[in-house]
Write a structure and sequence with these properties.
16 strands, two-stranded antiparallel ribbon, about 350 residues, 12-stranded mixed β-sheet
């Protein structure tokens, strides 16, 4: 076996029993840590080189079918639909959070705090599908993020009631108008990822052959944007997270403005998804606790649909349309993600010390 394995604490089960009545006062993190330790191997923990995080079964399926992920580790606190982390003998593990913020944060926290894994040198790959702005890409494209922006932590006024001189109804927390800076913060609105890692991931994968399809090709011909009509490609582009599966050009323009405003113009929003700020928050808590390295996180999203309507099409029609992008996006999330993971595992003596 090529996994690194590290010692873990013994007698964890008896320690949980003796301190169980104090767990509520000790807080959620301590509870997770104690419970997880009780379920970990008595002698060793797995230290993955790469931990892939997917959000639902169809994103996970290509990894399970193509890799020999024969070691299954049950982690208390994972979704009941995806209770195991699957690992191979080379240093690759794959977990599935289930969709949405609550599932993403809870499952990732369970993994980080559970005690079954030594994650201090692990590279994390958040790998899933997304909607895409047709100005920036097309169906099947694969986008590496440098900025991950929360699209929902804000004030919001219904478009039917906004002042006529406002661009939209989205305001930062504590602000009086959309152009104001936030008056207060939750602290998770923006994550700036390791730009060197994102750029290296892009360079390693930019020549990966991407899946496409006739249905997707025909559908993207509806759009006038050059990027939308092009073949799928690997790019660097940023992503917006929000629990609400929104759709349409009006809110799309608002999200684009929001991403730029939240990052002082640094982010180029192109994909939208329902989990990444939540997943990153759980990972950041783990990093703050010394359990992992936040600089070793990469976010890859592949385009399964356009986030807005084509010319001559309503937003409602676009939302329910069959674009043909789902199959290529799932295939390309694996193709590009696996190329990145393989590069790390193959050259682990270099990668183990961090991104060079």
């Amino acid at each position: 076996m090529l996994f690194t394995r590290t010692p873990t604490l013994t007698n964890a089960r008896s320690r949980v029993s003796s301190t169980g009545k104090h767990l509520v006062g000790a807080g959620l993190a301590a509870a997770f840590a104690l419970i997880g330790s009780a379920h970990a191997s008595a002698a060793e923990r797995i230290a993955p080189k790469v931990m892939v995080i997917t959000m639902f079964g169809e994103e996970t399926k290509p990894w399970l079918e193509a890799r020999k992920l024969t070691t299954k580790i049950k982690v208390p606190g994972l979704s009941k639909d995806y209770p195991d982390v699957a690992c191979d003998s080379e240093g690759l593990c794959v977990m599935t959070t289930a969709m949405g913020y609550a599932n993403a944060a809870s499952s990732t926290a369970a993994l980080v705090l559970g005690g079954q894994f030594d994650l201090k040198q692990t590279y994390f790959l958040i790998d899933g599908i997304a909607g895409i702005d047709p100005k920036d890409g097309t169906l099947g494209s694969a986008l590496w993020a440098r900025y991950v922006i929360d699209g929902g932590l804000r004030h919001d006024i219904d478009p039917r009631q906004i002042p006529p001189d406002w661009p939209d109804g989205m305001l930062p927390l504590g602000a009086a108008k959309p152009s104001d800076k936030a008056g207060w913060s939750a602290g998770t609105e923006v994550y700036a990822l390791n730009a060197k890692l994102a750029e290296k991931a892009f360079e390693l994968t930019r020549s990966v052959e991407l899946a496409d399809g006739k249905e997707a090709e025909d559908y993207r011909a509806r759009y006038q944007d050059e990027a939308a009509r092009a073949k799928p490609a690997v790019k660097l582009c940023d992503t917006v997270s929000i629990d609400t599966y929104w759709h349409g050009s009006k809110i799309g323009d608002a999200m684009e403005r929001w991403a730029k405003h939240a990052t002082d113009g640094k982010a180029n929003y192109c994909t939208t998804q329902m989990e990444d700020n939540a997943t990153l928050t759980a990972l950041k808590r783990g990093a703050d606790a010394g359990l992992l390295d936040f600089e070793r996180i990469a976010v890859l999203r592949t385009a399964s649909n356009f986030d807005r309507e084509a010319p001559g099409q309503s937003a409602a029609e676009s939302l329910s349309a069959k674009s043909g992008g789902f199959g290529p996006s799932v295939a390309n999330a694996y193709r590009v993600g696996s190329a990145f993971a393989d590069a790390i595992i193959k050259d682990w003596p270099d990668w183990s010390a961090g991104v060079q």
